[in-house]
Amino acid sequence: MRVLVTGSAGRFGRSVVVALADAGHEVVGIDTVAGTPAQAVWLPADLTDPGEAFGVMSRFRPDAVVHLAAVATPFSRTDGLTFRVNTQLAFNVCEAATALGVGRVVVASSPTVIGYGAPDGWTPTYLPIDEDHPARPWNAYAVSKLVAEQVMASFARSGTATRFAAVRPCFVVAPEEWEGAPTQSGHTIRERLDRPDVAGVSLFNYIDARDASDLVRTLVDRLHEVPSGEVFFAGAPDALAREPLADLLPRVIPSTAGHAAALTGTSPAFSAAKAGRLLGWQAKRSWRTEMGDH
Length: 294
Description:
Blueprint lengths: L1 E5 L4 H12 L3 E5 L9 E4 L6 H11 L3 E4 L11 H21 L4 E5 L31 H17 L6 E7 L2 E2 L15 H6 L1 H5 L6 E2 H14 L7 E5 L10 H8 L20 H7 L7 H5 L3
Parallel strand pairs: 1-2, 1-4, 2-3, 4-5, 5-6, 6-9, 7-8
């Protein structure tokens, strides 16, 4: 298929481009900045402009769209800009794709929609967290991602032939970051392992960018096999922690004490079982396999 990837120069986008190209797809990368891998044709475009969004879809006529473009982290820009850009991007991409007959659209969301880290405290309804857990976003980035999910779902309910899904990738770790390059938070992975207060803010969640890209590729290939409008967590099979979360989480986030006992052994706080059940996908890499630590 011809697959158009927005945000193709980003931490996640680069891996998605490579995964799709390696699977034999023709990839078109759309990003406002350079850095899209050579496996894709690159066109700079600002998709917050509806005209540009329609122009890109009309020019390339993709079979599928993977929408990753966004202000990528909380508090990295002003709240107003983050909300406006992320929600407008999601709407414009979904509208243009639907209007121009794109068959499949995958939209990137975020685990932050769950609401962990809220300044006034946060308590999970249950652990591990899955797609049915209540969403309680408390900042502009998280709200914008929940709105992007709802935009995706609204188009899925509109009667269109276009098939939709959203992915909530956990803390994405690019391949070079296992070797010590700074992560999106500015810390290294080893620092996150050595300092539970750093990784604990996001419940020790993570995923290798290549594994998350494999789920995106799987969705592009098999979206016609699952109900349109579904949401999927993408997470590693273990937690980014040297201790079991049953012991560690209550120390870092005391409000989790009533539920953390459900997390046995190296189990993570987020469950990707739905992707396994509906798509046969599971992450293959962990920090242990990539860093040689045990």
